[in-house]
């Protein structure tokens, strides 16, 4: 089938490449000329394991193209996906300006090319309920021919995006016509996931509700962790024991310094704001947000309790800058907040991350030092802080690290280290809820 993907961010690029990988003819459109130029040369602007390889193959097979303009492709397309960003506006709501602009361009292009093939316009961006109808209205203003709109939210995780796309738990499709249902069924034929068809409005809500629920699970286990710490229980065992109950499940029960990234923080705030605009106060989500904001601060409080409120003359090694492992994304990363607070308290910070240094430098510039490896960061440091759950941090040479450190303190913000082993080696270990 012939597909146009508008927007080449994480969602648009991965989805476009994966659709091409399963055999469709895909054109990815982005207004950023430089980015399109690089993509045409198979240069992937994001860190996503495996993406570059399948992108190169799809381009070679002639299944994948990139362009800055829509018109040449529109007359002959089955589906046009909108996968542009929906950032947060100043009130916490989703800012729909990019979605609206994409819809207008689609309408203008459909009109100019007198498209008669009855395309389906599919919203993949995370958008509030009612946005598909808004998209329909905007396109109708420009184009009086036949078209459908549908909602098909994305559930991919950064770092696991390809696997999630090709073998996700489900594909949610919101439609209101048989034609749109058929087109999307055909598009997803090559994918090993159950398709769930629903109304457009329910589909739009499923995305927000899913992210908000997962964020709630994280804030819940973080509060349990805080209670564990005061009562002598270990949250790792508590989460394991809870997760053995299939009704609860063992996923998303890792306590630590809270969730970050470009999705959970923004989507939880957006859903809270959508509810408020409808006259409903979503008390639970308000607490989820507050707990998450507090959690990263707790680690700094612990460190200051041990090293003193004024950290002048103290060197802190921060291991991890990305908002989670397997990505170079530092958006809303707890690590960056922790670094800023430590610097505010006059600490000197040396940070290391296997892939996110470049992005972190754009935010932190020269506020802290960046180390080429964890041992460099730890040299003469008064404490190590684990701020990202990179698996490689569990395999560090802790005997070597202990010799390098000025004081053997470890603050494990992600609970990934072996507390017993570190204690036996003579470290003072501080986890989250252990
Ligand atoms: C999330 C969702 O998991 C995807 O399904 C969704 O498609 C995506 O948002 C989106 O809306 O686009 P992502 O932001 O890539 O994906 O990251 P996650 O793996 O969900 O992790 C989010 C944050 O929660 C990270 O900071 C992670 O460290 C933290 N986390 C996760 C915990 O603190 N504890 C856990 O148990 C799990």
Structural features, described:
The chain has 17 helices and 14 strands. The protein has a 6-stranded parallel sheet with strand order 3-2-1-4-5-6, sandwiched between helices. With 434 residues, it is of the alpha/beta class. Helix 14 (357-364) links the parallel strand 10 and strand 11 (369-370). The relative contact order is 0.09. Helices cover 45% and strands 14% of the residues. Residues 126, 154-158, 211, 214, 218, 252-254, 256, 259-261, 263-264, 267, 323-324, 389 line the site of uridine-5'-diphosphate-glucuronic acid.
In angstroms, what separates the terminal alpha carbons? 53 Å
Ligand catalogue: uridine-5'-diphosphate-glucuronic acid
Number of strands: 14
Q: Unreliable segments (pLDDT under 50, ≥5 consecutive)?
A: none
Q: Which characteristics define this entry?
A:
elongated; alpha/beta; 17 helices; 45% helix; binds uridine-5'-diphosphate-glucuronic acid; 434 residues; single chain
Write the SSE topology.
Layout: E1 2-6, H1 10-21, E2 25-29, H2 33-40, H3 51-60, E3 64-67, H4 71-74, E4 79-82, H5 97-112, E5 120-123, H6 131-142, E6 148-151, H7 161-167, E7 170-174, H8 178-187, E8 194-198, H9 200-231, H10 235-243, H11 264-277, H12 283-307, E9 315-319, H13 334-344, E10 348-352, H14 357-364, E11 369-370, H15 374-378, E12 383-386, H16 398-404, E13 409-412, H17 419-424, E14 428-430
Helix pairs in contact: 1-3, 1-7, 5-6, 9-11, 9-12, 11-12, 12-13
């Amino acid at each position: 089938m012939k597909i146009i993907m508008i927007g080449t961010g994480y969602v648009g690029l991965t989805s476009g490449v994966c659709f091409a990988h399963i055999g469709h003819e895909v054109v990815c459109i982005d207004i950023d000329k430089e980015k399109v130029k690089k993509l045409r040369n198979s240069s992937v602007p994001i860190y996503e394991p495996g993406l570059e390889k399948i992108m190169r193959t799809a381009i070679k097979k002639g299944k994948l193209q990139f362009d800055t303009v829509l018109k040449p492709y529109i007359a002959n397309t089955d589906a046009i996906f909108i996968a542009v960003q929906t950032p947060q506006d100043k009130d916490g709501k989703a800012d729909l300006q990019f979605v609206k602009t994409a819809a207008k361009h689609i309408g203008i292009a459909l009109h100019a090319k007198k498209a008669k093939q009855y395309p389906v316009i599919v919203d993949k961006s995370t958008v509030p309920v009612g946005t598909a109808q808004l998209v329909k209205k905007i396109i109708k203003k420009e184009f009086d021919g036949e078209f459908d709109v549908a909602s098909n939210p994305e559930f991919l995780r950064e770092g696991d995006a390809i696997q999630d796309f090709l073998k996700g738990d489900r594909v949610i499709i919101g439609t209101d016509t048989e034609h749109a249902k058929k087109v999307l069924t055909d598009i997803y034929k090559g994918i090993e996931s159950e398709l769930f068809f629903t109304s457009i409005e329910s589909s739009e809500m499923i995305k927000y509700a899913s992210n908000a629920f997962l964020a709630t699970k994280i804030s819940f286990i973080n509060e349990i962790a805080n209670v564990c710490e005061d009562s002598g229980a270990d949250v790792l065992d508590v989460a394991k024991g809870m997760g053995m109950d299939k009704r609860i499940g063992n996923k998303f029960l890792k306590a630590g310094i809270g969730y970050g990234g470009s999705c959970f923080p923004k989507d939880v705030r957006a859903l809270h704001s959508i509810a408020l605009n409808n006259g409903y106060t979503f008390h639970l989500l308000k607490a989820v947000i507050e707990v998450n904001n507090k959690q990263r601060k707790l680690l700094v409080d612990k460190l200051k309790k041990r090293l003193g409120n004024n950290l002048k003359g103290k060197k802190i090694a921060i291991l991890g800058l990305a908002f989670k492992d397997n990505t170079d994304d530092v958006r809303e990363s707890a690590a960056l907040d922790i670094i800023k607070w430590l610097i505010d308290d006059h600490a000197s910070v040396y940070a290391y991350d296997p892939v996110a240094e470049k992005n972190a430098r754009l935010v932190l510039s020269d506020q802290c030092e960046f180390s080429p490896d964890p041992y460099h960061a730890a040299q003469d440091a008064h404490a190590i802080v684990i701020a990202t759950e990179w698996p490689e941090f569990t395999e560090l040479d802790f005997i070597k690290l202990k010799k390098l450190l000025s004081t053997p303190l470890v603050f494990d913000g992600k609970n990934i280290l072996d507390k017993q082993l570190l204690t036996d080696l003579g470290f003072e270990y501080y986890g989250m809820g252990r």
